[in-house]
Amino acid sequence: MNVIFVGPPGAGKGTQATRLARCLGIPHVGSGDLLRAVRAQDTPLGHEAKEYMDTGRLVPDDLTIRIVEARLARPDAVNGVILDGFPRSLPQAERLDASLGRGKTTWPDAVVYIKASRDVVIERMAGRWICQQCGSVYHIPAVAPSAIGRCDVCGAPLVQRSDETPAIQAVRYDVYEHDTLPLIDYYQQRGVLVEIDGEQGVDAVTGDISAAIEEKRGARPVASGSGSQR
Ligand code: AP5
Fold first, then answer.
1. Which of 50, 88, 124, 230 is catalytic?
2. What element of type H or E holds 33?
3. Those residues with Cβ within 8 angstroms of residue 44's Cβ, 6 or more apart along the chain or in another chain
4. N or C: less crowded end of the chain, CB within 10 Å?
5. DSSP secondary structure of 73-129
6. CA-to-CA distance for 7 and 30, rounded, in angstroms?
7. For a substitution probing ligand 1, which of 33, 51, 128 has the most ligand atoms within 8 Å of its CB?
8. How far, in Å, from the CA of 9 to the mean position of ligand 1?
9. Residue of 88, 124, 130, 160 to mutate, ligand 1, most atoms within 8 A of C-beta
10. Quick one: pLDDT band at residue 107, thresholds 50, 70, 90?
11. At what angle do helices 61-72 and 90-99 cross, to 10 degrees?
């Protein structure tokens, strides 16, 4: 099964994509996670990715598409993937159709649109804490760890992302409205869009996604949990 998660920054795409991937037994491929790994390298590509990500802009398509396609070519993606944050522009969607969707009558199986207002997502990004070591994601106070500042899963310190300043969050939201929002119509016209109210609590959102995916494919219910491990 191939599922794409779309929505504004901080809407909960990563949180929910992690849960659905675990439930369906297929990989969770987050373009932001892939690009952060590239950005961490002291290479020309890493420097290029950093320049865009640290200012809230989209990394150019040629670099992003190359990295995502390399990940999708790995053997574990053969039975499907949960794509989180990719595509996030019409050119990326068309490129994905031409590669992963080639020859398929139904592609993708579902596009989960997690809808949330600007105010809600700005608050969520401001409260997000991430484990430095295992990548588990928390929110204070909505998805709080048991011990302040420490990951429940591995005990490592929690940190905030470098693109979480109010100014960069505002740019990321504007970029979303300009470049990514057109994807909603694009996938709605294909009959694969599922709109989810992302302003509910985490487990309620998971429940709605689970029901929608079950309806599409007869998938198992999605298990709930505390911090979302990525
Ligand atoms: P990326 O890492 O993809 O960031 P994003 O799309 O902006 O999304 P986020 O990761 O910020 O949020 P999310 O929706 O996953 O929310 P989360 O589950 O963490 O991209 C970063 C950058 O990389 C981009 O700016 C761009 O530069 C580049 N990039 C990435 N993909 C690209 C592409 N395809 N093309 C070009 N450039 C690209 O939740 C947020 C917080 O809320 C967490 O603390 C969580 O615990 C909490 N939370 C989640 N759900 C709930 C809930 N229901 N109630 C309360 N709290 C909740």
1. 88
2. helix 31-39
3. none
4. N
5. TSGGGTT--EEES---SHHHHHHHHHHTTTT-SS-SSEEEEEE--HHHHHHHHHTEE
6. 13
7. 128
8. 5
9. 124
10. confident
11. 30
Q: Per the structure block, which two tokens stand in for 75?
A: 């053997």
pLDDT confidence band for 104 (50 / 70 / 90): confident
pLDDT for 228: 61
CB of 24 within 8 A of CB of 80? Answer: yes
Which atom of ligand 1 has the smallest separation from the CA of 138? 46
Q: What is the mean pLDDT of residues 95-114?
A: 86
Task: Tell me the pLDDT band of 54, cut-offs 50, 70 and 90.
Answer: very high
pLDDT of residue 18: 95
Residue the block writes with tokens 């999605």? 222
Predicted local distance difference test score (pLDDT) of residue 106: 76
Q: Whose CA is nearest to atom 55 of ligand 1?
A: 142
Other CB atoms within 10 A of residue 212 CB: 17
Report the alpha-carbon distance of residue 144 to residue 163 in Å, rounded.
21
Cα 199 from Cα 12, distance rounded (Å): 9
Give the residue-averaged pLDDT of 117-124. Answer: 96
**Within 10 Å of residue 52's Cβ, how many Cβ atoms?**
16
Q: How far, in Å, CA of 18 to CA of 37, rounded? A: 18
* 159 burial type by CB count under 10 A (0-12 exposed, 13-18 middle, 19+ buried): exposed
